[in-house]
Amino acid sequence: xxxxxxxxRQLENRSNRHRALLLAVVVIAGxxxxxxxxxxxxxxxxxxxxxYTGILTDAAGVPLPSPQNIGVAVYDAQSAGNKVCESAAQQxxxxxxxxxxxxxxxxxxAAVAAHPDSWVEVSLAGTPLGRSKIGAVxxxxxxxxxxxxxxxxxxxxxxxxxTRVTALETALQSTTTATAVMDNLPGPFGATGIGRTFQCKxxxxxxxxxxxxxLATTPEYQLDVAVQFDGSVIGHLKLNPTxxxxxxxxxxxxxxxxxxxxxxxxxxxxxxxxxTLSDSNDYFSVTVIQAPH
Length: 293
What we know:
Layout: E1 10-12, E2 19-22, E3 27-29, E4 34-36, E5 40-41, E6 50-58, E7 68-75, E8 83-92, E9 99-104, H1 107-114, E10 119-124, E11 127-133, H2 137-146, H3 154-175, E12 177-186, E13 194-200, E14 205-215, E15 223-229, E16 232-239, E17 248-249, E18 253-257, E19 263-271, E20 276-277, E21 283-290
Helix pairs in contact: 1-2
């Protein structure tokens, strides 16, 4: 008689959408002519947490007919030892490939967790087929521990997370504001630019800026509207037009101002070069978003 190992691999338990892990190796029952090919334990739902799956064939590899009287027991030693849990022998249905499943009692989860050096033994018609080391079951048992995160059940954890999310949304709504500092304000911005003052709380700011302008001549060949915050340039809106004197919308951009002091601040839009002009046909908009502190 011979035995060959089966590679460990993960399977999916379609009934509870948890992962299942292949547990055992091939076990040959000496002198019996039967081969037990594999076993795996499903993920842990609220009931029927461990499912043992195996394939039974004769010595020639032909699947055994269905049904068969099959029992599954878990021991704390490779031989002798104590039986820590079992699913008593009864008639089990085999599919055409000889595959069967045995749902282990709920108590097996705690039993296997308490005995990490566990061995599983399948019996066929009352005859044991030998024991196999359960090296992967602790993985499934740990999934049950993970479901009790911070001592809470999944439903309790979901309720706690929902409460935290609601509190966070409320905090964001109460601290995040948007202020239209300029709303399609007409030009021109003149030599010193066009500016407006606004008030903010402490915390970062996001400035959303849009503008139109026109090119006086073509040598420099670039429209440039500079953005100032309290007199310091924090960025530019730029565009390369194809000809002069066309009023064009420059790409809208966002600028971040990190943690300015609470109080009044001034935003100014002005020409970034001498070739950029505006008149009453041009418009400027600035929206300030106040982020939470």
